[in-house]
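Input (NHL repeat-containing protein 2):
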Amino acid sequence: MAAGGLAGLLPAQTQLEYALLDADTAQEKENLVYQYLKKMDSRERDLTVPELGGDLQWLNTEGPISLHKDLCGKVVVLDFFTYCCINCLHLLPDLHALEHQYSDKDGLVIVGVHSAKFPNEKVLDNIKSAVLRYNIVHPVVNDADATLWHELEVSCWPTLVILGPRGNMLFSLVGEGHREKLFLFTSITLKFYKEKGQIKDNNIGIKLYRDSLPPSPLLFPGKVTVDDSGERLVIADTGHHRILVTRKNGQILHTIGGPNSGRRDGGFSEAAFNSPQGIAIKNNVIYVADTENHLIRKIDLELQMVTTVAGIGVQGVDKEGGAKGEEQPISSPWDVVFGSSVSGTQEDDVLWIAMAGIHQIWALMLEGGKLPKGSDLKKGVCLRFAGSGNEENRNNAYPHKAGFAQPSGLALAAEEPWSCLFVADSESSTVRTISLKDGAVKHLVGGERDPLNLFAFGDVDGAGINAKLQHPLGVTWDKKRKLLYVADSYNHKIKVVDPKMKNCATLAGTGEAGNVVGSSFTQSAFNEPGGLCVEGNGHLMYVADTNNHQIKVLDLETKILSMALPVLKPEACDVPDNLPVQKDKIVNLPRLPKSAPNIQLPPLAVAPGQTIQFLLKLTLPPDSKLNEEAPSAWFITAEDNTWLLQGQCLTGEIKDVSCQIVIPFQLPGSCVSAEATLAIKACLYYCSKGSSACMMAGVSFSQPLQVTGTDQGSSAQVELMHTFVTN
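Output:
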């Protein structure tokens, strides 16, 4: 047992820490650590870490790991973390660098000990998602009941504990920002025990969870926003380290950065981001919270260029700011939203920033102007607007005295009587407001009155402090209805807040992690949604359903979660935007066999600009399977109505008939005639399992369209079902 837990290390390590402060050279520091280890190693009784329970769940390994058997002869770094914690995330680059320098062959093993803060974080599937999202490649154990945490008397996240080859505790490092000590302690410990012949070079059975997953068009999308026209979406495809600009039918217009992380300005194909989150678009300019690069980036869609407008590329600790953007260090920006200065001559001349890493709200001046109760500021200046930098749930009439706890989502309601910023304050599980007149920070819903209690979370509909949230990450303002929508991430729900009455209620989601579409709001399911937006006319809401790797579309008028947005590669789209349909490309589409049935569908009333989702479900004859070598595909034609096809995806591959295929189609904004017919066709190549014969089969669905009115209405869905039979 560990005698007194980490407290047993305190006297000797404190003495070492003071001595290191007085040491001038690297050699002196190494000698001090070496002498410390000699003293610790010669103790009559080791401070030993207890064995991890055999029933604990492990990730990134071939099976459970024993500290005293499998890791005997290794220097082990235990990382006590919880995946919601920004300080824990700040530590990951240090651990990545350490495991890059020393492998298990060198005698070092890092083990993540996940000790949850929120109930939602105890669930193994959610930890799996976090391991993928943050590219954790060392073993992780789910210490759901915090058994080891309590045994060692760990008191905060993150805490590192360094063990010798007998499971003997040697050092602890509490909090972030100890990279130099971590490397010093680890390197000298490896050297010390190698000289004693106690380090083993055997491999640990690593089996990365990420290697078992199929590719996905989106990977942990964190945020989504829509432009003023409602025609373009911007998606932070966080896990792919890129920004996507798509049509509202999911067709990709621009891919910027990705798929690997990096930090690079330049053209769209050479630019690089690192886990981008918040995005804001106006006309053809997008601002991006490039979270793990600690930067704010600007994307110019006309010039197709990415530039850096704030941050220096390393995590900042400055809690005041005031320098020109590209010279001002910042820390883990998580969301951005446009706003207007008090004295500015133009709208949207301020970019508000949720600076999660230092628990503050900052401003980047896009033009010269004043902030509430502030002095004149020059264009390009980046500075703190609200928050002391202490991690608290503290409201105050003076913005600099207020306290936030990892603010992760922003929304603006500029109109009277609101005139405020809404803040999703994730670690206090609250939504707060900041007045755009005087900067006063006030409580809206969630949390509790004690500003130091960051554990007042739950899932309760109600008013003000009686409402409870669990780690909300996103907010968006519905101008039409004067309502605020909240991505209540760890409750797997979308909630709606009436700021006038301070009432908070569940809008969508069951409260259980899941993935359900095509249903009413109350039956729909999400998995840690991180961001959301509402188009200007208040009709559709888009939700970044982060752990489901989807953008979900909610119709606020019919209260139906209609679909997950299909993200379609531009190369799958045969017709360029605003160009006439090219005849040669239509000629190259597959020709159906003469025996292919032509199924007549009932006429569909549609409006210009409306989106139709064709849901294709095909069934092969018994004991048949698709021929993987042949190009099975769906495609769309419109004889005598080629105007319908401008800017559309005309074809796509069919690789799997076991699930429904979603084929999006958006009517042009201006329609040439009031009646037209689309043909949706499928051509399949399949084989009988017991035979070497391969068949070609096809089907055509004829969909008459009746164009009426100008109201775009809700997204229409049309089921296309057919069962092929053996001749």
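The helical segments are 10-22, 26-41, 86-101, 124-133, 147-151, 179-195, 583-587.
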